């Protein structure tokens, strides 16, 4: 039983680590408007799509800024990388 718990724990850890290498918090229709919106983590399922590093377009600074996405909610001004954000929003 103890080995099974360790195996389950390792599996969960590996799946969470792998999720951080892929972008799971990307909205379907990305936009370059709206303020920074990190979303919320109100339910336990929000952690599945939470990303420690995402980017949003700041109309104030006219460049992409880093933010942490909490996994639920938020707006569509959210990108997986600085490069993706800059290519879409800088004109």
UniProtKB/TrEMBL annotation:
InterPro entries: Kunitz_BPTI (IPR002223), Kunitz_BPTI_sf (IPR036880). SMART domains: KU. Residues 1-19 form the signal peptide. It comes from the Eukaryota. The keyword Signal applies. Residues 32-89 form the BPTI/Kunitz inhibitor domain. Keywords: Signal. Pfam families: Kunitz_BPTI. One of its GO terms (molecular function) is serine-type endopeptidase inhibitor activity. This is BPTI/Kunitz inhibitor domain-containing protein. It comes from Drosophila gunungcola (fruit fly).
């Amino acid at each position: 039983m103890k080995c099974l718990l360790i195996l389950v724990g390792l599996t969960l850890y590996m799946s969470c680590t792998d999720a951080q290498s892929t972008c799971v918090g990307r909205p379907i229709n990305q936009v370059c408007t709206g303020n920074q919106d990190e979303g919320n983590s109100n339910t336990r399922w929000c952690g599945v799509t939470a990303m420690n590093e995402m980017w949003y377009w700041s109309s104030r600074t006219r460049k992409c800024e880093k933010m942490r996405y909490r996994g639920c909610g938020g707006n569509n001004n959210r990108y997986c990388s600085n490069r993706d954000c800059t290519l879409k929003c800088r004109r």
